[in-house]
Write a structure and sequence with these properties.
transmembrane helix; 0% strand; mainly alpha; transmembrane; 4 helices; MARVEL domain-containing protein; membrane
């Protein structure tokens, strides 16, 4: 049987990999926007959402490393910032899920892929949150 601590370690390592990929991807999109020239004036600048996504990904990387240290040293207080960032990520994923469902388009195949991706992301983040809170409660 797998312990809760091992399961939490697995999810935290997956979060670290995903957060690094999201951070690099958001930096690539931001730099591509800065290097491109658009005919449309409103598409010339980087949107606010990409800056938020980049900052949140970087924050998740830092907090995930702190959570890894907390799990190895049995320090409960270093898990709390990571849980707070997870709650923020869950809230934003719920907002994006609501926005995607509100813009329903049955003919667009990308809409279905986006919806499945957001549902998978939300379920992953919720399981991470549940496992981390249970591990935090069990730490003495």
């Amino acid at each position: 049987m797998v312990s809760m601590r091992t399961l939490t370690w697995t999810f935290i390592l997956m979060q670290l990999v995903i957060s690094c990929a999201c951070f690099i991807a958001s930096l690539a999109i931001i730099s591509a926007k800065f290097n491109s020239v658009s005919v449309y004036e409103d598409k010339q600048y980087v949107s606010f959402e990409w800056w938020i996504f980049c900052g949140l990904s970087f924050s998740m990387i830092i907090n995930t490393v702190a959570a890894m240290y907390a799990l190895s040293e049995h320090n409960r207080f270093l898990l709390i910032p990571h849980i707070l960032v997870l709650v923020l990520c869950n809230t934003l994923a719920c907002y994006v899920l609501h926005y995607t469902v509100a813009n329903f388009d049955s003919t667009d195949f990308n809409w279905h892929i986006g919806l499945m991706t957001i549902i998978f992301t939300e379920s992953f983040l919720l399981s991470c949150l549940v496992f981390e809170v249970r591990t935090l409660r069990s730490m003495t």
